[in-house]
Amino acid sequence: MEGSLVPVNEGEETDRDETSVENDGRSGFMPGRVHLSEVTVGIGGVVMLVGVLLGWSADEGAIAALSLLGLVVLLIGAAAVPVPLVAALSPRTNLPMAWETLLAGAVTLLAMALLIRTALTSAGGFGSGLLVVLAGTLLTLVAVWRSVAREF
């Protein structure tokens, strides 16, 4: 609904959007603004961060041998975790489109890099951390693109 007539005082009406902020300029925390896809993006970010802490190869831990790919996973996971909170605090019902679109592109590139790394790693040569990061990345990938598609 584009806008609705909302009584302000007795006998007065004004044209105001349902999603507009309150009179004091603050929007407040509203969990009803958060969609399932945004919650899933946050969960995927947490899974990615947990996967970085686990070993990526059979003989070494991920933190001890943190590569550029590991740093990218940390950054993208950290950017994905607060998505539900930002949606709940946003003065509008939708997240800022630029952030979601940038995150969707970054997660897509990360998923391709992780799939290539997994395919090039010899059988039994990777640890559970790489698989957890890959699962979290694919979960985030699907959820963030569904969230972006909802905007259009």
Describe the oligomeric state of these chains in a short phrase: single chain
Q: Percent of residues in beta strands?
A: 5-15%
| Total strands | 2
Share of residues in helices:
55-70%
Descriptive tags:
two-stranded antiparallel sheet; 5 helices; 2 strands; 152 residues; mainly alpha; disordered N terminus
What can you see in these coordinates?
The protein is mainly α and 152 residues long. The chain has helices at residues 36-53, 68-80, 83-89, 97-120, 128-151; strands spanning 4-7, 13-16. The relative contact order is 0.19. The model is unreliable at 1-6 and 12-26 (pLDDT under 50).
What's the helix and strand layout?
Layout: E1 4-7, E2 13-16, H1 36-53, H2 68-80, H3 83-89, H4 97-120, H5 128-151
Antiparallel strand pairs: 1-2
Quick summary:
The protein has 152 residues and is mainly alpha-helical. The protein contains 5 helices and 2 strands; from the N terminus they run E-E-H-H-H-H-H. It has a two-stranded antiparallel sheet with strand order 1-2.
